[in-house]
């Protein structure tokens, strides 16, 4: 009984792991370049920004919300860091300022969604446009480039066999698993999406928790912004546009319910790795990127349909 | 009942509530004692749900006061209502289907360790003993509440109400969506709570049930409490007549006549 229910609950993650492993097997057999540490590190590196956004998104979706602003908030916080560094306030202060800028976006998103009860889709769609507008205004529409080595380190440096982007994404995944499974904050994120009214009736300040979730998502976006900017040695105002779609896809593929109440950080992580491996494999098999877009879209559609059918069954 | 408290645990005095032009409650008075089951009956729109929402802190009254165990409140928030000892088992049970039993019982009052971590082990253990104490059969403690039967879900909601420290438990249509066997089990549970010294208020449409479990009945009509009677001194026909307004009884202590 116990084992059966546990397995049932882990079904999407197990299925996903199966898909990932068979994908790796197929690609290893069909390309001699696929199965190497360099390539695997490459996949992790390319996935890192998306993983960072997806961890924040997992909490937002768990709480029954959505955050469409993350991609543009990431770009905006990168732009703020760049502008601040060009004003010579020091790398550390500049990074801090970028985080602060993103945090304010999260705060506004959260306050509007929780206290004024505006649909999160509309709220974050608006703040997405505001972040994009501000990034374009601050930069005048052109990229800011050329930063000090101590800043570039966060994107291109190496720490042992890994690099800061990969490490950041791993740390955030572990932190996310810990928060989701072992803390009050994670439990309330799930409860908010499962039955927010029930949580409110027990006397919990649901607005506070809901707001903090959007702030967390924005801080994840700031980390993504830091990595994007440092890696390219340039802050482009439109760098992170549409990244939110990738993050949402990973969360849903990872077994979360679009309605909230059910979500898994580990699932999100495996899902994003699977997408990374798939893209890498398609590139190796010289499938044009247009087709890759098509495949990714189709996979997401299937995942959303499966997720919907599953929650209907419950 | 011999163990019914002498002083009322809950006294509602002159509570009024308007929604726009609609007078949902017109100066309601109501007493509830520990150790007894009080049934509140009335037609749809009589004001039963509104009074429950006010007592649980979900709705703020326009006027009047609520006295709980001697303390006066002009309004209650969900937190203060719980702290004062009033717990409500809602009609929808207010459970989070995707979370497990212990998480639901401890929702909003989780045991913690290291400040922000959940003490899951302790909650699982306490949940188990609480359910055993209430005689609620649960096949598997870790199952998500969404997978349980109606009666088991009701049991989890009751366990939570008791864990919240409720001395007075309010049940809103406790058996509305239940089969016969489960209904019997839930009624037995409610009756048992009163025997153990909890105060119980039950909102119900089902006359047979009301007569089966209650010690007193308060009848509401169009936002007023028109009568409070001892269950054994009336018969279902009388009560139905009071609900519809066919007769007014004036031999009851709480009877109020407006104008």
In the CATH hierarchy, what is the architecture of chain A at level 2? Orthogonal Bundle
Mean pLDDT of chain B: 87
Secondary-structure element string of chain A: HHHHHHEHHHHEHHH
Cα-based radius of gyration of chain A, to the nearest Å: 19 Å
Written as H for each helix and E for each strand, in order along the chain, the element string of chain B is EEEHEEHEHEEHHEHEHEEH
How does the overall form of chain A come out from the CA principal axes?
A: globular
In total, how many beta strands of chain A? 2
Percent of residues in β-strands of chain B:
25-35%
Distance between the termini of chain A: 18 Å
Give the number of DSSP strands of chain B.
12
Structural class of chain A: mainly alpha
Percentage of residues in helical conformation of chain A = over 70%
Spatial strand sequence of the major β-sheet of chain B? 6-9-10-3-11-12
Key words describing this protein structure:
heterodimer, A: 314 residues, mainly alpha, ABC transporter involved in vitamin B12 uptake, BtuC, two-stranded antiparallel sheet, globular, B: 259 residues, alpha/beta, six-stranded mixed β-sheet, four-stranded antiparallel β-sheet, 8 helices, disordered C terminus
Lay out the secondary structure.
The complex is a heterodimer of chains A (314) and B (259).
Chain A: H1 2-9, H2 11-30, H3 37-62, H4 70-86, H5 91-115, H6 120-139, E1 144-145, H7 149-156, H8 164-182, H9 184-201, H10 206-232, E2 234-235, H11 243-253, H12 265-284, H13 289-313
Antiparallel strand pairs in A: 1-2
Chain B: E1 10-19, E2 22-32, E3 37-42, H1 48-55, E4 63-68, E5 71-73, H2 78-84, E6 86-89, H3 101-105, E7 112-113, E8 117-118, H4 120-133, H5 150-163, E9 168-172, H6 180-195, E10 199-203, H7 207-213, E11 216-221, E12 224-230, H8 236-244
Parallel strand pairs in B: 3-10, 3-11, 6-9, 9-10
Antiparallel strand pairs in B: 1-2, 1-4, 4-5, 7-8, 11-12
